[in-house]
Amino acid sequence: MDDELKNSILKTGTTILGIVCKDGVVMAADRQVTAGTIVMNKNFPKVNKINEYLVVSWTGGVADALRTSKLIAAELKLKELKSKSRPTIKQAANLTATITYSQIRQPSMIPSIVGTLIAGFNEDSSAELYTIEPSGSVYQVEDYDANFGSGMPYVLGLLERQYKKDMTIKEGVELAKEALKSSIQRDVGSGYGIDVFTITKQGIKKVVDQEIISEYRDKKE
Length: 221
Fold this sequence. Notes:
- A hairpin with a 2-residue loop joins β5 and β6.
- With 221 residues, this protein is of the alpha+beta class.
- It has five helices and twelve strands.
């Protein structure tokens, strides 16, 4: 099972990333969905708004990611109704980790392999970013993370050099765009578009919505 999990993680073709800024969190992803070496979808949103205070992005199996997304939304709503208070981002992250952990440990012909970045703002307006690895472990991100997508090495290399502590949301958005472009240039599992969201005390906003269009040009003599 361990070898199967490791091999599946290595095949997750995508680029997702989260950047912690002094005034919020930036979440971004490409749009390409692959099945092995085949591009199955060129316009798939990998950053999803769960509710008015929470955003998640996924790497791994699409069906598993969508199912987990629905489970999180439903469970958080139930928790809010029962406790009469809104769950914190940490509680949402731990819930996601629990779901992820339980899914990969159920006997199945096709194991669920999903890595998650989860960000949101608490009732005190503080914004937080967490990463949930495909194995189900969870930890708070203090600077940046790209989970286990195929574009991770290209993203982390650029962020390692250009990320600055206490950078603004505006700076974080520009850095996210550059990181995604770097990944798309080299990672065959990423491409076709860029989506960037900001998570601040003012709410969740989609600030970048770009499509990548291929062009065929005659070679000039």
